């Protein structure tokens, strides 16, 4: 079966070792060399659904698609689940809903369950048994800023800008704003969002300091060249149009909405910042998984089936997915706006639409597998920008990642689908939970999730081992 957005990952046929590791993890009896597997019972292959009526939350973004498809194509129902999908006003409301039990689970920022577990912001025991997608975000700048930078961009033979575009093009713009006594403001969706870290990564790679978080600066603007603030995703275009911000990082369809409204231009996609980066997760409370293992496994099976449907047959189902997502109870944006990034294309300007088959990946490249190394990357960025104020050894990063990201639960569900012939054995990775050394970053730096402190030491801008930040600056070796 031809899949959508494949880009160089080999498929593995052997899953016997994984089945064994899942069984051991479910019994709490296996330890690897880096950390202890948390003692949460894995979903059993034959477990009955204990809680059939569920309410799941989401934010109006195209990457909530696996939940909508699982509902609309009957995958939840076929697993014996009666699921209500409920849009939430913002990421904080969504997080509080899961923690408080008003929601049984949610489409969630990958950083949220990690931050809750380490006690940054709200303290709670959340887990991420499934990754929802790869890629899907972009950074958009206002027409004013685009007009200030576009004349300096390298052009291809057809006259269009060469991508990726470095944030270094913003340096003279930021300088101009400073000379006028004005801050250069950009928006992102939440302090522990992928968008925050992607925007910071892009800016820092271009030589601009996006600022640090300190105990006295929860907005993360200490020493900043660019001031970042929080805006809920659907409000990004209006906030840009009002002139409150000069750019933003957000998921679709809110970059394409700026193109359609002719108020901004996407300048870089997150896939260009970090090729095939992990995006949202499906998150539930740890005690939910313990109390309802059969329900947890049923939810995961339904969502995995939806992810496979979204990427099947070269994207043949994407047009139907766009129609579903355009409904007001889901994303509620025009079909044309959603399709502009969801169907293998991405529009930068009205006359600049390019092939982007991997802009949204839901199933291919093992997109659903919750890799420990993905979780550790988020934790390194929290440390880099001061949300984690003190040093920790590598073991600490491993322990936090394994407390939250639960590949054992994912594998228990995925392997049940393999046994039924619903998905192929080659669609399940053979891995120790780490992706291995990764490149594809805009700054050329490689990432190895097994060496988080060594990774942090590679950055010119950002906190390293032994360093702390205060209003007066960065101190330490």
Automatic annotation (TrEMBL):
UniProt signal peptide: 1-25
Kindly state which keywords UniProt assigns to this record, in alphabetical order: Cell inner membrane, Cell membrane, Membrane, Signal, Transport
Protein name as catalogued:
ABC transporter substrate-binding protein
What InterPro entries does the entry give?
NrtA/CpmA_ABC-bd_dom, TAT_signal
Q: Which Gene3D superfamilies match?
A: Periplasmic binding protein-like II (3.40.190.10)
Main location per UniProt? membrane
CDD domains with a match to the protein in the record: PBP2_NrtA_CpmA_like
Q: Where in the cell is it found?
A: Endomembrane system
Record-stated family: Belongs to the CmpA/NrtA family.
Q: Please indicate which superkingdom the organism of origin belongs to.
A: Bacteria
Taxonomy-wise, where does this protein's organism fall, top ranks first? Bacteria, Pseudomonadati, Pseudomonadota, Alphaproteobacteria, Sphingomonadales
């Amino acid at each position: 079966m031809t899949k959508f957005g494949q880009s160089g990952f080999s498929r593995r046929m052997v899953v016997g070792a994984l089945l064994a590791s899942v069984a051991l993890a479910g019994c709490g009896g296996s330890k690897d060399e880096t950390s202890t597997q948390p003692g949460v019972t894995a979903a059993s292959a034959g477990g009955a659904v204990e809680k059939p009526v569920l309410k799941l939350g989401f934010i109006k973004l195209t990457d909530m698609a696996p939940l909508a498809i699982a509902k609309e194509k009957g995958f939840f129902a076929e697993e014996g689940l009666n699921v209500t999908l409920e849009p939430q006003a913002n990421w904080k409301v969504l997080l509080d809903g899961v923690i408080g039990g008003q929601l049984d689970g949610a489409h969630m920022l990958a950083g949220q369950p990690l931050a809750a577990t380490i006690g940054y912001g709200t303290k709670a025991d959340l887990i991420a048994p499934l990754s929802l997608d790869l890629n899907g975000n972009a950074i958009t700048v206002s027409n004013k800023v685009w007009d200030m930078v576009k004349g300096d961009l390298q052009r291809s033979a057809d006259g269009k800008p060469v991508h990726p575009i470095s944030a270094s093009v913003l340096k003279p713009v930021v300088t101009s704003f400073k000379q006028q006594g004005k801050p250069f403001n950009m928006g992102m969706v939440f302090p522990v969002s992928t968008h925050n870290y992607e925007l910071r990564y892009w800016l820092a790679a271009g030589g601009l300091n996006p600022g640090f978080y300190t105990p006295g600066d929860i907005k993360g603007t200490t020493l900043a060249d660019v001031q970042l603030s929080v805006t809920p995703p659907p409000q990004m275009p209006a906030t840009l149009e009002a002139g409150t911000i000069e750019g933003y990082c957000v998921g679709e369809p809110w970059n394409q909405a700026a193109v359609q409204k002719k108020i901004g231009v996407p300048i870089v996609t997150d896939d260009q910042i970090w090729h095939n980066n992990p995006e949202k997760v499906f998150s539930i409370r740890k005690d939910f998984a313990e109390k309802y293992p059969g329900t947890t496994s049923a939810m995961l099976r339904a969502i995995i089936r939806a992810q496979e449907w979204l990427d099947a047959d070269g994207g043949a189902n994407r047009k139907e997915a766009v129609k579903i997502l355009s409904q007001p109870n889901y994303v509620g944006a025009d079909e044309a706006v959603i399709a502009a990034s969801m169907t293998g294309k991405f529009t930068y300007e009205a006359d600049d639409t390019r092939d982007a088959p991997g802009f949204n990946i839901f199933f291919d490249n093992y997109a659903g597998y919750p890799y420990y190394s993905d979780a550790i990357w988020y934790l390194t960025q929290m440390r880099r920008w001061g949300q984690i104020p003190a040093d920790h050894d590598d073991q600490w990063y491993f322990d936090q990642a394994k407390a939250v990201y639960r590949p054992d639960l994912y594998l228990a569900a995925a392997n049940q689908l393999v046994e039924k012939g619903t998905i192929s054995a080659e669609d399940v990775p053979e891995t120790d939970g780490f992706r291995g050394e990764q490149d594809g970053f805009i700054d050329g730096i490689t990432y190895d999730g097994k060496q988080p402190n060594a990774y942090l030491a590679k950055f010119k801008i950002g906190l390293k081992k032994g360093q702390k930040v205060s209003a007066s600056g960065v101190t330490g070796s």
